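[audit] Reproducing an earlier prediction to check determinism. Same input, same settings, fresh worker. If the tokens differ from the archived copy the diff job will pick it up downstream; this log only records the rerun itself.
[audit] input (322 residues):
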Amino acid sequence: MGVQEAPVVGNAPNRAPLDLDADISSLKSRIRSLSNRRATLSSTILTSHTDSAVLSHAPTPVKTHAVAAQKHSVSNLHRLCAGCTTFLVHDPDPCAVDNGRVFGVRIEVFTDGKHARIPPSSTRMISPLTIKGYAGKYLAPYYLLLNRPSQSSSSLRIHRHTIPPCIPLPALAAQYLPQPSQSSVDPVTAAKRNTRPQKLTHLVRALRRELVSYHCRFDGVSKLREQLGLAPIIGKDGKRRQRVLGSYGVKDVATTDAEALGVRIDWKDGRVARMRMTKNGDVTKAVVMGNEGRERAFERALLGRLEKLGERLRDLHEAYGG
């Protein structure tokens, strides 16, 4: 009798590679999860005060890792509490001035993830108006790199930066970081002739204020859109869809410039409002055009703090409809 071949069941040979790929993907995900957990536990143990006595008797490699982990923890604490931290880096360019020494400033800005919106020409937003009970996350820091024109000079100048173009960094630098006069060839003599001292601390403080208010305005407009029911809807397919009509007859709310100082509001009845804000979020100017010309009552009602604009729009809707 001949040996009978085993029957082939369905598409088993085709299903086997798919099952194997799924198992490999699951194992890779598990490895990543365990690796992250191991890193978290290692960092917790190395920086724990209760384990410091045990680590003092540990081998040298463990002590080295413990010291590095503690330094990293202190650095994170400074970045969390201070908002602005400094560091030193070296410019690898062989022709760099001052032997490549660069002084860096790191500026932290955080945002409410629920209302976050990516501003133009940026990857970052905070609203100090809702700081009570605030739950946000830090975004990519901004960097300001400075160097000296020469080794004999004591003045600093901006070397590189990641500040958005709409932030008036050149004006702030001219005010707080004036450069020595170029009339003299000797930089030391030129520095002495410069009667205005450089104030790096004032520059960083003013620059961070500009960045925070910049993100605050975008955050305020995003929150206003959510209050009016204009936040995008995420469908079952995962795609974001824009709502057609929000509350109080408002069709759309959007910023009109890169600095988020201008805001436009469109109503379903054809009214259009153009508003101008200060850097601190105060609406100081407003023009509302309707079918019969300017709407003075609307213009007066829109003035005030940005975070209260939703309430004022509700009052307008109750008083005038639309």
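[audit] rerun output stored. Observation attached for the diff report: Residues 115-134 have pLDDT under 50 and may be disordered.
[audit] end
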